[in-house]
Amino acid sequence: MGRLWGLMMHVLLLCLFEVESSNAQSTVGSPRALDAVLQDYAYRAFNRARTGVSYDGTVPPNLTGIKVSAMRLRSGSLRSRGVPAYKEFEIPTGVTGTPYVERLVLVYQNLGNWSAVYYPLPGYAYLSPVLGLLAYDAFNLSATNLPELDIRTTANPIVINFTDVKSPPLGSVAKCVSFDINGSINFSNLISSNVCSTTEQGHFSIVVESIAPSPSPISPPPTPGGGGPTPGKAGHGKSNTKVWIIVGSVVGGLALILLLSLLALWAQKFKQRKNMQQMEKAAEAGETLHMTSVGDTKAPAATVTRTQPILESEYVP
Ligand SMILES: *[C@@H]1O[C@H](CO)[C@@H](O)[C@H](O)[C@H]1NC(C)=O
Ligand SMILES: *[C@@H]1O[C@H](CO)[C@@H](O)[C@H](O)[C@H]1NC(C)=O
Ligand SMILES: *[C@@H]1O[C@H](CO)[C@@H](O)[C@H](O)[C@H]1NC(C)=O
Ligand SMILES: *[C@@H]1O[C@H](CO)[C@@H](O)[C@H](O)[C@H]1NC(C)=O
Ligand SMILES: *[C@@H]1O[C@H](CO)[C@@H](O)[C@H](O)[C@H]1NC(C)=O
Ligand SMILES: *[C@@H]1O[C@H](CO)[C@@H](O)[C@H](O)[C@H]1NC(C)=O
Prior knowledge:
By secondary structure, the chain is α+β, with helices and mostly antiparallel strands.
């Protein structure tokens, strides 16, 4: 009985630990929440916001490994001249943004070793970091949580000349992948070994189908300095369901323990009753079958009898 309890508690604790550790792993916010954080940190790079100049930003310590830059442009200039070289991006002429703003900011992101963390792609391996290009209104350079402007090409596509590309394993074909700001994923062919193209803003990389079964997304190591999850509705929903899982497993575990102990108790009772019955049976059998010889006749004899049977001939009145 004690052993059973111990085992049950052990199982219950293991379950709880499992839930806890999976909780600790999911401390990465959504890609959209990251976009918002990076817009903020890219805008902070503007000390003198000269147009057409790229300013490199610094990211918070909990995002070390990610690079951001920002470039401010007049919408008219973007459309008529494009940007021949903004990091890996070549922006052609004819790019327009909606809604129309007088000046816009192009935020560049290089997610580095965080690429697969924020953009997990089961069944594929990244050959280059995920790069982002997003457009925002330049009206207020202290503003945060800005919505993206919708920028689109009218004639030629935007060319992405990846500089940091691993060569694909022999026999496999590399592909361009793009994620638009609504999260939809598109695959397309490379223009050349390290060049992709796009007609709109978003996140881009070069991938190859992985032969190994899809690896689970790598979780980042615990970040120092209170690197909690980026606040977001999705994150809250997740932690809520986690709480329900914990509550559910505790209640379920306790119910199971109760059930098992009742079962054990009943089994013990049953065994006792069986023993009692056997003892009674044995006693009865002894009384009825235990025969004693009295003279040359057999007579049943109880073990304890008040009057011993005697022969009549011996009877002396
Ligand atoms: C710019 O945005 C900041 C932060 O949201 C706000 O405090 C400030 O008033 C805004 N400035 C203008 C000119 O709108
Ligand atoms: C990409 O960049 C490399 C060097 O950085 C250059 O030689 C090549 O011409 C570029 N390709 C395109 C399509 O821009
Ligand atoms: C994203 O979704 C919004 C609302 O559904 C839509 O207006 C917008 O065009 C979409 N953007 C892209 C790039 O698909
Ligand atoms: C993705 O590809 C489909 C078909 O190839 C195309 O209709 C769609 O516009 C593409 N979406 C993006 C965001 O490029
Ligand atoms: C990326 O590398 C930096 C150090 O360069 C490290 O601090 C960070 O934790 C790494 N991120 C991930 C997701 O591994
Ligand atoms: C990183 O830290 C900043 C503040 O230092 C916070 O605003 C942001 O949400 C954090 N991001 C992540 C992914 O933890």
